[in-house]
Each structure stands twice: as C-alpha cells, then as structure tokens.
Amino acid sequence: MSKQSFANDVVMIAITNILTSLGAFLLLPVITKTLGAYDYGIWAQISVTVSLLSSIALMGLSMALIRFLAAEKDGHRIKEGFYSISVVVALSGFITSLIVFALADFMAITIFSDAGTSHYIKAGSFLILLTSLDQIVMFYFRIFRQIRTYALITLFNTFGRLALILGLLHIGLGLMGVIAAVLFIQVAVFLGAISCIINQIGFAIPKFTMIKEYLRYGLPLTPNSLIRWITDSSDRYIVGILLGMNAVGIYSAAYAIGSLVQLLVTPIQLILFPELSKMYDENRLDEVKLYLSYSLKYFLLLGIPSVVGMSVLSRAILEILTKPEFSSGSSVIPFVALAGLMGGVFQIVININFLVKRTTSNLFIHIIAAATNIILNVMLIPLIGILGSAIATFVAYLFMIIVVFYISLKYISFDICWSFIAKSIISSTFMVVIILIIYPKTVIDLFVSVIIAIIVYFIMILSLGGLSKTEIKITKRYFYKIFKAIKTYTKN
Asked: What is the pTM of this model?
C-alpha cells in the first residue's frame, strides 16, 4: 500500500470517527438528562463489565486474526482461519454471558451495591457475546482494508443505537430501554457483517487446523487485555465502592468526554498494524519506520489541540450537555484527556512489540500500570474524590508511555518529529484565546466555538509549516472526492 493510499484510508476512518464521536457526544446528554447520575452510573458499570469480560472471551484471537491473515493469500486458509476463530469466540462469549447471567444477583449486591440492579445485569449479560462477535467480524474488514464497508457499519452502529435509544427512552423504558437498544443494534451489526463476509469468501464448517497456533499467539495477550482494563476502567468499580453510584455517574460522564481523545488513534491503528505486519514480514523495515513516524504525527495533529480544547471547555461542556449534578466532574476531564493522548501514542508505539513478538514486555507494562492505578485510586479517592481517580489514570498512562518508548525503540527506532509537536502546542495556544473569548453557554455556542477553534488551529499549524505540501494535497484531494460523491448521491 502506498503512503498516499494509507493516508486516504486514515482520512476516511478519521471522518468516520469524527461522526461516531459526534454520535457518542449526542448520546451523552440523551442518557444523562433522562436517567440522571444514579442510573447512568449503573449503565457505566454494566458497560465496563462488558468491556472486561468480552476481552477475556476473545482470548486474544482478534489480534491473532490480524497477525496471521493480514498477509495471507490462500482463500482456503483465510476461510478456515476466520471461521475457526469465530466459532471459538462465539462459544467462549456464550459461556461467559451465561455465567454473568447466573451470578447477576451476587454481582448486584457486591459490585453494584444495589440488589435492585440484578435484572439490568441479566439483560446486559448477553452484550458480552455480541461485543466479542462484533469485534471479530469488524476485524475482518480491517484486515483486508475494506474501509468503506467498515465505515458504513460503524456509522450504522453509532447512529442506529442513538436513534433507537432516543425512541425507547421517549416511551419511558428508561435504563432497560438503553440496554435493549444496544442489544438489538449489535445483533443487526453482526448479521449484516457476517452476511457480507459469507458473500465474499463463502461459508465453511471450520476444521480448527490452525486454532492451536492462533491460541498460542493470542492467549498470552489476554492478560494484557485484562490488565489494560484495570488501568482504563477499574476506577469505576473503586469509585462505586467508596463513593456510590451517583459518583460513578458523574465520573463516567466526565470520563466519556475526556477519553474521546484516545478515539482519534482508532483510524490510524485500524489500518496501521495490518500494514506493518505485512511490511515487517517482507523485511521492509524502512517503510515500517516511516509509517510509525507518520502515524504518530497524524494522531498528535488532532490529539494535542483536542486535549487543550477539552481542558479549557470542561465545565462548559458538562453544564451544556448534562444536568447540573454532573458539573462537579469538570476537573476530571483535563487529566483523562491527557491520559487519552498518552494512550493513543502508546497504541502506536506498542505495535513494535507485536511485530517482533516481544509481548512479555507488554504484560509487564500493563501489570505495573494497573497496580499503580489501583493503589493511587484507593489512596486518592478518599482524599479528593473523583479527581483522585482521574489523577491515578493520568499517572498510570504516564508510566506506560515512558516504559514503552524505552523498551520498543530498542528494536525499531523511528523519527518522533519533535518540531511538529512544538508547532502543534503553539497553534493550540492561539486556539485557546479564541475559545476563552467566545466561551459557550449553549449547544449552538459550543458547536460554533469548536468549529472556529479548529479553523484557527489549522491556520496556525499551516502557517508554521507543520504539514508538508504532499500531506496537504492528499487531504484536499480526499475531501474533494467525498464532496463529489455526496453531490452525485444528492442529485440521484
């Protein structure tokens, strides 16, 4: 894949991510204003539980799917690999869902501190199975660079969920309506995606000839997912135990906004690792270094101003999008946003360890970060409340990014473009001035201030020479194609 093709795919997924982030942004006020802090806290606990258990059910096989099939040319091996992994994940996810369903009463008392939440846990338990399966089928499109299909399904998932949640909340179904909407949309996503895959490669009953090799690669990565979850999400459990569900709701709303920064790395990472795997296997090491450098630059191009903007607008965003009871979470957003920026950088650099198959160091990084996060949460939350949890997350990610650079660059070293980082920070500073002058009070004000801030930032970054002429041409060309396609579609 040429650098231009890589950039085009990144831009397409970036646009998709912007739209999905907008959908998530719109979903936040819908749920928080309707449910309030307590019920939103229950939904947040269900979500982080599903995130934990679905990653365990996957057993690292999603990464094995990428690593072994990205460069595969044999159609029979692709079919065998995909379906064998899908069946194993389906079985694992189903068993995990049944266990959660059976333990719902126990979890309601011990984790959620409310026996009345049991029926919500039972309803949400099958999200584990569906989340696991959806990840596998979506990874198929990622591996074989079917970016348009991936984007369309992602957009359907986001806005279909938003529309259905709106409808079910409107008729008074409350939190159960939110769970039902997510279940229905995930079923639809899986059925649509698997139909598309079967149409492309056909269907076959797997013989599981390669599953041992896949599990040998994937299973050692499963503790990474578990420990990464501890770093990312265990704070909700600790906040719930120490401060209660209202605090979980407030913290989760602020965390959801701050963590949007890390989503910016998704369009890059979705395309990057499959391509790096192919290039590394073909001994094209110079290209591996170049792609790592460009990927880091593309992420920081949007990540740095996002952190700055969210930090300045943190209180305004919560006051505009949620109920007044959520505004006390504004101090959380800057720390979570900065942690998200470091998390995005970490995801790019950690690819090196996956390429050279040095995954033991990944486990070490995640274990220390998770332990740091838990210890700091327990120490700081009683002292300074939910702000302590945000600081703990920031410190854990700071450790992760320092160690991953130290370890990974020993194997493959690449250009980190420090001059660009400085230019981005300077441009973000000018952007802040505009935000402070406007300082939004309504949704329209917020939207306008964000648009103006983006324009100011890019004018400054271009003026400082932060982007090369080639990068500017590629971006312009791609947006022109999108505009032309939209115009043609509208006429038809």
From this structure: 0.72
